[in-house]
């Protein structure tokens, strides 16, 4: 195989950039300097253009050469794998002679190995005994020298000079003995390491011989596989070199790959630290115990359901059930980041659902269209109603935010009051004499049918229907993530949630931040309310009841802290999915609905307790 030489693509690209930069400078100078004639300028620029074209061609050729080498290496790798497969098949079909004295040969090898092992153990024992006796002798000599040292130091018959000379001489002897002990110890360790290394090599040889004894065919196949792995490894090394060379030409792509590798290594290092230090493991357990419990719960449900719970159709069903409630969780999460909550979420969902149903051809209990003029409205009317619903939700969200920010009333009180106000409005809307009767269902014809298709329509993937509102949920996730992470509003929201006083000092408007956050939350609730009718088939005065509780649970499971300033969109999404997993799992194994509420309450309590424990530990 030809040794592929790495090309310096990055240098070629650098030369090209410098040529382009030089051409721009020449053009700039030529335009300002009157001594440059138009002809001279054109000639200079043409020469520069020629150099740039040549550099581009050289870079393109070099890049293509690297790509060709990668393609050739891949083809060579494919051929080697094919040849290896053919050799393995040939070896499997080959007949090998059986050794008639197989047992005797095996006993002989075992006997030789045992004799070698005994000899090794004897050598190790002799070496240790010799080392021990030498150490004892040297330590005894040191003891005698120390006794002499004490006697000479306390002697009064010797002169100071003689005593100092003898003491110095004895000190030197003691130091020599100590050095000899250390050297002997080191030599002994080196000798033991050599013996053990030689023993391991020889023992491996014996074990290999015994392992493959009478298995000539298996041994031949094994050797062929080892040989093939070595060849493939060399080709993979060359491929990696060429790919790195190609990646270096694309700085951003190369930087992304390097960062990904570094992040992976950091992640692995963190996990090693978490599982090798008790205190770190306890912290890791506090952070992840809820997820561990839910994962174990899913495994148990999957076992009891015979595997049907983790089928593709079941997974899509869980995502479907999660999707139309996910906007509520995203909205409530923003309020929790501000150290608050929102109890009006479910009622805003219900109100928007009711208004959407009335304006999009909804039928009352008698089967009559509430507003007959809505049946023949064009398709665009659906989007108009969506905007109206978002305006209603945003208005009530702003109402909550205004009273929380302006009068410093706790969000619990404000949103509880809003919840009651909206429920009263819903009672008025559905009462006789206002809209004739409570709207209960959505028709399949006219604008109602188009409304259904807009939300509940979809496409098939692997034989299972994927509804449009799953796609809408993904789009909303992306939008909320962008708001939280890439906009001034999101950064201000986290700053106010962490410390409102510090945020004010930093020039952040706390009033504006709270107002916008609650308004966005209201808009998100309204989108969920708009989706309710096609999903559930209609709406009633009780629609949206307790929706906010599931949303709060999902947010807290996802790591949004009630202490404020902490939360991720990805965490809210995971929390919503996990909560739906619990509900669907309990329903799958036939648990009573009453117990499901009890378990949800326990999950909320556990999640908040763990959140507070993390907060206290952090403080």
From TrEMBL:
<feature type="transmembrane region" description="Helical">
    <location>
        <begin position="289"/>
        <end position="312"/>
    </location>
</feature>
<feature type="transmembrane region" description="Helical">
    <location>
        <begin position="466"/>
        <end position="484"/>
    </location>
</feature>
<keyword id="KW-0812">Transmembrane</keyword>
<feature type="transmembrane region" description="Helical">
    <location>
        <begin position="324"/>
        <end position="341"/>
    </location>
</feature>
<dbReference type="GO" id="GO:0022857">
    <property type="term" value="F:transmembrane transporter activity"/>
</dbReference>
<feature type="transmembrane region" description="Helical">
    <location>
        <begin position="379"/>
        <end position="405"/>
    </location>
</feature>
<dbReference type="Pfam" id="PF02653">
    <property type="entry name" value="BPD_transp_2"/>
</dbReference>
<feature type="transmembrane region" description="Helical">
    <location>
        <begin position="412"/>
        <end position="435"/>
    </location>
</feature>
<keyword id="KW-1133">Transmembrane helix</keyword>
<feature type="transmembrane region" description="Helical">
    <location>
        <begin position="505"/>
        <end position="527"/>
    </location>
</feature>
<feature type="transmembrane region" description="Helical">
    <location>
        <begin position="348"/>
        <end position="367"/>
    </location>
</feature>
<protein>
    <recommendedName>
        <fullName>Galactoside ABC transporter permease</fullName>
    </recommendedName>
</protein>
<dbReference type="GO" id="GO:0005886">
    <property type="term" value="C:plasma membrane"/>
</dbReference>
<keyword id="KW-0472">Membrane</keyword>
<feature type="coiled-coil region">
    <location>
        <begin position="45"/>
        <end position="94"/>
    </location>
</feature>
<keyword id="KW-0175">Coiled coil</keyword>
<feature type="transmembrane region" description="Helical">
    <location>
        <begin position="589"/>
        <end position="610"/>
    </location>
</feature>
<dbReference type="InterPro" id="IPR001851">
    <property type="entry name" value="ABC_transp_permease"/>
</dbReference>
<keyword id="KW-1003">Cell membrane</keyword>
């Amino acid at each position: 195989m030809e040794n592929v030489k790495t090309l310096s693509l990055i240098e070629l690209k650098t030369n090209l950039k410098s040529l382009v930069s030089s051409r721009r400078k020449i053009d700039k100078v030529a335009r300002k300097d009157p001594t440059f004639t138009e002809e001279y300028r054109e000639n200079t620029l043409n020469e520069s253009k020629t150099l740039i074209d040549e550099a581009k061609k050289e870079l393109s050729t070099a890049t293509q050469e690297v790509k060709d080498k990668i393609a050739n290496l891949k083809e060579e790798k494919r051929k080697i794998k094919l040849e290896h497969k053919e050799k393995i098949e040939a070896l499997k079909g080959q007949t090998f002679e059986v050794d008639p004295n197989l047992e005797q040969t095996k006993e002989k090898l075992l006997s030789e190995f045992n004799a070698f092992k005994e000899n090794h153990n004897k050598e190790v024992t002799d070496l240790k005994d010799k080392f021990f006796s030498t150490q004892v002798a040297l330590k005894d000599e040191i003891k005698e020298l120390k006794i002499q040292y004490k006697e000479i130091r306390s002697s009064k018959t010797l002169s100071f000079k003689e005593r100092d000379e003898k003491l110095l001489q004895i000190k030197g002897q003691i130091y020599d003995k100590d050095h000899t002990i250390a050297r002997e110890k080191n030599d002994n360790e080196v000798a033991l390491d050599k013996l053990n290394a030689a023993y391991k090599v020889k023992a491996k040889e014996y074990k290999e011989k015994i392992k493959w004894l009478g298995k000539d065919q298996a041994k031949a196949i094994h050797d062929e596989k080892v040989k093939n792995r070595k060849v493939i490894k060399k080709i993979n090394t060359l491929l990696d070199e060429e790919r790195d060379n190609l990646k270096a030409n694309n700085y951003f792509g190369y930087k992304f790959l390097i960062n990904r590798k570094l992040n992976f290594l950091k992640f692995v290092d963190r996990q090693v630290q978490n599982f090798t230090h008790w205190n770190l493991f306890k912290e890791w357990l506090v952070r992840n115990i809820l997820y561990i419990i839910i994962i174990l719960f899913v495994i148990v449900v999957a076992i009891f359901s015979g595997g049907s719970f983790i089928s593709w159709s079941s997974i899509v069903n869980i995502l479907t059930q999660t999707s139309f409630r996910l906007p509520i969780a995203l909205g409530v999460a923003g309020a929790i980041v501000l150290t608050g909550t929102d109890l009006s979420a479910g009622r805003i969902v219900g109100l928007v659902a009711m208004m959407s149903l009335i304006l999009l051809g909804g039928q009352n209990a008698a089967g009559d269209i509430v507003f007959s003029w809505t049946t023949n409205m064009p398709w665009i009317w659906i989007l108009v109603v969506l905007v109206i619903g978002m305006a209603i939700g945003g208005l009530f969200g702003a109402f909550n935010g205004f009273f929380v920010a302006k009068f410093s009333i706790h969000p619990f009180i404000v949103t509880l009051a809003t919840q009651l106000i909206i429920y009263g409005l819903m009672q008025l809307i559905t009462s006789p004499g206002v809209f004739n009767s409570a709207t209960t269902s959505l028709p399949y014809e006219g604008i109602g049918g188009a409304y259904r298709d807009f939300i509940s329509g979809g496409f098939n993937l692997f034989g299972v229907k994927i509804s449009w509102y799953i796609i809408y949920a993904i789009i909303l996730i992306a939008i909320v993530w962008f708001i939280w992470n890439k906009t001034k509003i999101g950064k201000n929201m986290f700053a106010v949630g962490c410390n409102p006083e510090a945020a004010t000092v930093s020039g952040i408007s706390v009033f504006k931040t709270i107002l916008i956050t609650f308004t966005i939350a209201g808009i998100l609730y309204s989108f969920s309310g708009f989706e309710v009718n096609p999903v559930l088939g209609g709406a009633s005065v009780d629609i949206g009841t307790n929706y906010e509780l599931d949303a709060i649970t999902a947010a807290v499971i996802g790591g949004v802290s009630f202490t404020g300033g902490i939360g991720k969109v990805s965490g809210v999404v995971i929390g919503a999915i996990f909560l739906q997993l619990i509900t669907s799992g309990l329903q799958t194994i036939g648990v009573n609905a009453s117990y499901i509420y009890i378990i949800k309450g326990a999950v909320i309590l556990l999640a908040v307790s763990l959140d507070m424990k993390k907060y206290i530990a952090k403080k």
